[in-house]
Sequence to fold (556 residues):
Amino acid sequence: MDLPSLLQYLITGLTVGATYGLTALGFTIIFNTTGIINFAQGEFVMLGGMMSVFFMRALGLPEPLAIVLAVVCATLLGAVVERLAIRPVRDGSPINLIIITIGISILIRGAAMLLWGKDTFALPAFSGSEPLSFFGAALMPQTLWVLAISLLILAGLKTFFSRSIHGKAMLACSYDPKAAALVGIGVDRMVLLSFMISALVGAVGGAILAPITLTSFDVGVMLGLKGFAACILGGLGNPFGAAAGGLILGVLESLGAGLISSAYKDALAFVILLVLLFVRPSGLFGQKDGKRV
Amino acid sequence: MQAPLLEITNLDVFYGKIHALREVSLSVRQGEIVSLIGGNGAGKTTLLCTISGLIRPSAGGISFAGQDISRRAPERIVQDGVSHVPEGRLVFSPLSVADNLRLGAYGRSSGPGTRAELREQAAEDLERMYEMFPVLRERKKQAAGTLSGGEQQMLAIGRALMARPRVLLLDEPGMGPAPLVTREIFRLIVTLRDRLGLTVLLVEQNARRALKIADRGYVLETGRVTLTGASQDLLANHDVQCAYLGHDVGQNVRANAPEKPSA
Ligand SMILES: Nc1ncnc2c1ncn2[C@@H]1O[C@H](COP(=O)(O)OP(=O)(O)OP(=O)(O)O)[C@@H](O)[C@H]1O
Ligand SMILES: [Mg+2]
Fold:
């Protein structure tokens, strides 16, 4: 294979991988405060894209405003989900909670289908669709947007968790909720915040990817599963690992599609996941004995 | 006589069908060290957790500084001035020692004062903790989980003190560390009371150790308070000696001993 096409696969992979990474970050944040895997995470990614489209078309808003509004709505919906579906049963077993999140995802997907139908929509690229040439490969401006915004979010979250006392308080809830309550951290509020932040991160991912991959009511299923795979790949609970896992998964998928066949693109992610679970269950960047839950 | 700072009246607590505390009444006055002794499963931890709001009582009252706190959320109770150092210490293992201490002041971050003032206050308190526990200063960047048991206990106490409490609830602080360290921790408890006027409710299985530093004590057995009195009286009490001080008084004497207050 020549360099330009290799580069092309790499670029495509990184772009999609960035969204997997953002989805994976959403999983990580909720997992880190509550120990729950929120299988509705993919739906927030879908909502980010679909609501942006909706706000542009139905309300005639300019694109940046539509996206901001979509992200705000998704964040609020994250709060609503936590208050109505998670908080009342917080003390239940993790398995029950996980099943509830699957229920939520089905509900959101169903509602999206009723509202917007089964069609596929495109969001206009943020700044033109004239490809730039990059060592012989075509680089869409949207790719740069995706990578830049993803990096920004990653840096923001990293600062939040490693510098801000509120971020550390959120981590404290995951290490020991009882001790967290005893130092005056409102654990309920932190859990609510974690659902909001991960909805926000997911929705941003959905909105920036929509101009590249199109969007429809059911894109959340695959994105959610891939994001989850990325999480496991990077080591569950590790934000840096989640982002890196997303990028690695995206690139492998894109190379696999180019070199083998695009028919197996989706299957590849899960083959990688299975192999990894056998070889290194704690993930690429997880501690060897990284049992936490 | 002044009104108690912390007063518990007829407290009942259940875990499902298990009746863990039965009509427990207890009071602690400002500046007192009161110890709560009792064997495994007597309900000591349950009582502390109920005071700090982690467990809801099904009946009875808990009043602190004249206010009923039995329905308040735990984070609110910390802000009110009751800090609980839990059994098993429960430090935030992956976080650094310094972060553990800083989180101790988290409840105050929504208190009165500007943000800059609060930050300065927390920095001053942090410095005081390092003076009180020099080992913690040496290890401030280390993950809390890598500390020894005794150091973790000091960290847990320091973290609780960062909230500037008026009452400190301590659950078996002497459990685990080497005897020397345990003695140091007990000396510290007395110092805290003498210097800062802190009020302490101390849970211990080792009755002698606890009663030596306490003003008064309560004996808890299967969820009931069966005895209470000044520390010297409890130390001299025959039943306490038999049950908790490990005196070898022999089967005979025990059999002939007067009945305990009805259980
Ligand atoms: N979460 C729980 N669920 C059910 N029962 C519990 C729970 N926690 C404690 N218990 C029961 O309540 C009783 C009191 O327990 P508690 O932990 O308060 O005792 P303790 O005096 O602190 O004992 P120890 O000295 O061993 O720490 C025990 O019979 C215990 O089995
Ligand atoms: Mg106990």
Residues B 44-45, 87, 171 surround magnesium ion (ligand 2) (CB under 6 Å). The two ends of chain A are 45 Å apart (CA to CA). The interface with chain B takes residues 165, 168-169, 171-172, 175-176, 178-187 of chain A (CB under 8 Å).
